Structures
1.
Amino acid sequence: MSELESVYKKMDADALKTMMYAQEELRRLGKSTLSPEFVFLGSVRNENSTGGSALYKAGVTIEKMRISYKSAAKGHAEDPSNNGFSEHCVELLLCASKLAENADSDCITSVLLVKAIAIHANSHCKNCFLSTMFNQLRLSEVLNRYLQIEEAIQDED
């Protein structure tokens, strides 16, 4: 079993739906390689998940992000593909898997995908679309606060 297959097997329904939306956004924008930007777009689009809800409450909408992505992507070549996934996307998914392990969980949730996106935006791609969006919208701060509140609420239940 490949690393990606094992990561996908750990995903809950919301995380899988996020990845399905990421693939749809990839096709919609005429690309062939899944990159972290598309996982981000998938997370934004999956606004009924906890991770997507955090983005939505931070004022992030799929319409705004599509426009921002199209503007940022002009003139940029796609990353090389590894079975349809960019190297950075594989790193992001492995990061989400590691976050699940660190939380003593066998499950990758939509929240962990969003956290992995934030980590990736802040450490791996200083001049990419994700980094620009996270800096402009101060998403890291907003998401951290929101996700801490969500985790506290879930712990009370």
Note: Strands lie at 81-82, 85-86.
2.
Amino acid sequence: MRKILLPILALAGLGYFFYSSLMGAVNNCEKLEAATLEAITAASAGCSSDQDCTLLPLTCPYDCLTPMMRSAKPQVVAALDEYMASCMAMCPDCPKERSAKAVCINSRCAVTR
């Protein structure tokens, strides 16, 4: 009985280790994604003219064309790089939109098509 029980307990412990490691990685990705979304949201506020805004072509889990302040683009790209280095997202390619442009509406960058 002991010969059978010991390997089963070892496998159960190993399974728990992998499960808890995986759940830790998932929680970390959720935190990184939330931080990235917060950076993107903050980056769209504060414009005073259309020239303050630019579009960042992204893929999911974000919008394909994300409007933001030109000055905030480096911080958003850094947050995205950190997220993408640690987390995986399966995303379709975004369609090419030649007519889309960034504009400032009510002090927030937006996309017009």
Note: The longest helix spans residues 2-43.
